[in-house]
Structure formats: structure tokens, C-alpha cells
Amino acid sequence: MDQRTQDVQIVVAHSQRATLRVGETFLKIDGDPEHAEVEAEAMALAPVPTPLVLWREPPVLAIAAVPGRAIATLGEPSTSPPEAWRAAGTAIRTLHDAPLPPWPGRRLEDVRAELDQECAWLLGNGVLPPEVVRRNRDIAEGALRPWTPAFIHGDLQCAHVFIEDGGVTGIIDWSEAACGDPMFDLAILTLGHEEHLEDVLAGYGQDADREVIRAWWSLRSLQASRWLIEHGFDPDAPGCEFDVLRARMRDPLP
To answer: Which CATH superfamily is domain 67-248 in?
Structure first.
């Protein structure tokens, strides 16, 4: 019998979940079984390219690798051409125009409460200069308005969108999918890659609200910083969340 061994690669690992790669299979292990349930159902409902689910055995979800490469990496210059970013925008619009998933998303009041809590932590621990936190909190207010819910990915980082030959081959990591603000997805995709916002919107449609997207850049960066620090990531790495917050200091208030 021909027996071949394959290396096990740790893609990400922290106290909440871990993802391993074995050959062309990804094994996602999550302490919250609802995440795997949402991810599998969202991929089945989404009208965009998603990974194939190979099997599920809680707490493990096994999915196949998608072809291509990530459109970009946070903190690194993007080498993807404008047409790839436009294709990503078109795919996101297709998702946002799809029927809503049968589970709710986050409530506006919960987003506001969490943001205020995270800003208090940043100020209380001296993680960033107070003026950076307060200015971005003011900017973030622009995202805290009622929205018409859409089917959103919920964690549409640039590393989660795969491309090949200028087209989208797969969108991965759907555990945060829900009903939500479509501008949030556009903001997360372009966080740290703001120079490609207009390319994305060329594919998505010009009815997107650029000021709200910029407000979500501030909100997301403020809200995610403590989690990143506590789980071994560095939001102060070049091009990452702290740089996004500092860059907002040059923007006029809406």
C-alpha cells in the first residue's frame, strides 16, 4: 500500500478556535458549535464561490481549499490588479442582493455599547494616545445609524477573498455571516488597503456610502484592538489597525 504523509500546517490558533491545513483540506476547530453551524449554512446559501464542505463532526468542520490566492494581506502592499478588486466588489454586491439568511445579526445598540467599552479600555490602558481614540470614536459615530440589513459575510478581510486570473475563486471563513450593514463588508475588505476602495466600488456600484465605509474603518479598528492584543496579534504592525486609526487623524470630520 502506498502510504504518503502530509505536513500539518497551523493556519491560525488561539483560545477560541484553530484552523489546520493538511494537504488540500482545512480543519476548523471551534469551541462554539454555533460558529460551525453558521459557517456551513452560510456557505450553502451564499450565491458566490465558497469552499466545499467535506464533512462535519463537531467541533470540527472540514472544507476543501479554494484555488487562487488571497487578494491581499493586511499590513502588506497588494499586488492584485484593479480588475481583481472590481471582481471582488461585484461578488460582494451579489451576496448583498441575495435573500437574507434566517438568523439575525448584531443590533445597533450592541455595536455602540461594545465600541464604547473598547474605547474605555484603550484609554484606560494607555494603548494609544487619547486624541487618536477620541477622534476615531467621533468618526465611528457615522457608522452607528440604522441600516437596511443585507446578507453580509461579517468578517470579509482581504485574506478571505481568493482570486485567480482577475476573478474571485472563493470567499472563506463564514462563521460571522448574518444580516447586517452592507457597508461593513466593504469597509473590512478595504481596511488597510484604502487605495483600492474605488476599484471595489466600481464593481459593487456607486450607491455605496463612502463616509459610512470610512466610519467603519475607525469603528472596526477601535473595536478589534483589544481582542488582537489579547490573542497574540499585533494591531501596531505596519499597515494594520493602529496605522488605520492614525491615518484618520488627517481626515476631516464628517
So the answer is: Aminoglycoside phosphotransferase (APH), C-terminal lobe (3.90.1200.10)
